[in-house]
Specification:
With 471 residues, this protein is an all-alpha fold. It folds into two domains: 13-181, no CATH class; 187-273 and 353-470, no CATH class. 70% of the residues lie in helices and 0% in strands. It contains 19 helices and no strands. It is globular. The two termini are 16 Å apart.
Length: 471
Amino acid sequence: MIFSSYPFLFGFLPVTLAGFHLLRRLKNVRGCKVWLTAASLVFYALGQPDFLFWFASSILINHLLLTLMDRLGKKKLFLALAVLWNLGLLFWFKYLDFTITNINWLFHTHIPLLKLFLPIGISFFTFQILAFSVSFYKGERALPTLLDYAVFVTFFPQLIVGPVVRHEEVMPAIEGEALLELDTGLLPRGVMLFSMGCAKKVLLADTLITFASAYYTGGGAADAGLVHSWAAVLAYTFAYYFDFSGYIDMARGLGCFFGIELPINFDSPYKARDFGDFWRRWNITVSRFFNDTVFSNLFGFGDGVGRLVLATMATFLVSGLWHGAAWHYIAWGLVNGVLVTLANYRALRDSRPLPAWLAVFLTFFTGALVRVLFDCTGLSQAAMIYRKLFDVRELLHFRTFAASALAFVKDNLQVTVTMALGAVICFCFPNSNRLSERERCGWREAVFSAALLAVSLLCMRRVSTFLYFNF
């Protein structure tokens, strides 16, 4: 189920909120937790009914392993089983066919593909479960009740696309009777965040996604010229930001309605001045997970530059593979690793910083080019798109080129205006985190939120899935 849809906004959400707050008013904290868990499982089933049994079973199995870890003391054994179970599920559904395809290519075999469906959210909730298991193994927290653990894992605002939360970020709001103590100050912040996220998705991202996907997956790339190719690359660059950060804004806003504050996952990434800075601003909670589980285990304080390079490249290799079971995702991860390594090298040398505007421009421009590897259907298509982006022969006939550029703008006026507006928002305005964290939400903020939500509702003509549902 999509947040920015009429069934969610006028069906699922009102029922879930009404039931939760009725139970809260009755001081029935157990009922609140059961209701939230049940609603979250229904939410998941409405989007992926085929995986619901596995998902619910996985929650029970993981809590059982935590319990055995706590009571029998063989922590390494049960942590290993938890890792094996969770990564095994992820490998089975996401990477098995990719592995078989490469085995067939390498050894000239003909093993049939299983063609399994990819459960939505599996990459995100697997990380959240594993992070909790590792924290428990390290003794950083006590064993939660099964019900508290179920709320932690299934909480529907962050279940599908994150953010990937740590136990200390949300468990204090879940355990005991904390759910009964709703901070009413969170409600206006929640409305503001949800309204801004919905507007990002409906008014900006969806228009750009329709245009860019026609280029990448609809066959448009083959016949496109220089202007069309650059427009498609930039459209997806802005679309992914507004789509993903819009989802996170809505998720954080929904969390506020239940008294659960979810962590920030985006912090104006297109204002980054190098790629190290970019990855501290984009999909922050997943980057944090990779830092904790991969980078920090390969690089420590005092290690040399060679070790730093190895740790960085390994981290982004895993990141690329996590994003998708295809070689173009691996290539995307490795190229990002090289760019972050170069940024780290400049920082270690204490190089003279570039002017802020130039650093931001170069980082954004390079990021847009690298994103082709992410958005393409394969490496051969990426190569074709790069040739089109740098085929300057059209520029040799400038009048013809200018005429074709103007014709493109005229034929795609909505896309052009949306991209221009998106650029202004990304580079010139404070982000939704800053706007929603102001101490006081007055009538101006209320009117602003209401207007955004009203316009979004009027433009919500069709349900468009979130791009990161595919990961």
